[in-house]
Here is the input.
Amino acid sequence: MKIALVTGANKSIGFETARQLAQLGYFVYIGSRDKTKGLEAIEKLKAMGLKNVDCIQLDVTDINSIKSARQELEAKTKKLDILINNAGISGGFPQPATKVTIDTLRLVFETNFFGVVQVTQEFIELLKKSDQPRIVNVTTELSSLTNHSDPNWIFAQFKPAAYCPSKTALNAYTVMLAVELKDTNFKVNCVCPGFTATDFNNHRGTKTVEQGASGIVKYATLDKDGATGKFFNEEGEIAW
Here is the structure.
């Protein structure tokens, strides 16, 4: 059975991503900063008839937590097939570039960027033991510098100066990682779930969590001929 780890998966898009992967037959580990909430998520999935799930306490901003999670996973499985770096925060809006605080910038980058780097580096050896390792970094169209350069873009006036740059940095790291692993069986991509209705945006999104998660699952389960080092949403490739 193939093994997947989804960070920040006790709720919203992460939870739905875990559910869809479990339905496809993957054994899914839910990474949750709060172990109690993670266990509650597991019980929900089991109530849906999905027994191939488990929970691992994982705070992506705490290197000791990440190392402990890796050690726990190593004790349970010899390899990891899919890593989905889903955990993320907004930092609260608005975030005007002239007023956003350094503390807010550091807080958002700690989760959305440095957290992903730390988790990826810690789990990379387990991923290398898979025949077809896949890494998906969950990002946003708001990270696209091409989009932000277009005055007619639908979100042209929405430019949170901590959240957007944190995801742009994540995109850049994804490209560097994909290039480093290009001669292996890895597929490493950025995926935007779209404007999905979750507590992240006070449920104002236009997509359901099912729709948001489906694109993530699609690129997490690419075959050997799939793309790597790209930026996608449900409709296709997005410009950097």
User: Anything to note?
Assistant: The CA atoms of residues 69 and 81 lie 16 Å apart. Strands lie at 3-6, 27-32, 53-57, 82-85, 134-138, 187-191, 231-233, 236-237. The chain has one domain: 3-237.
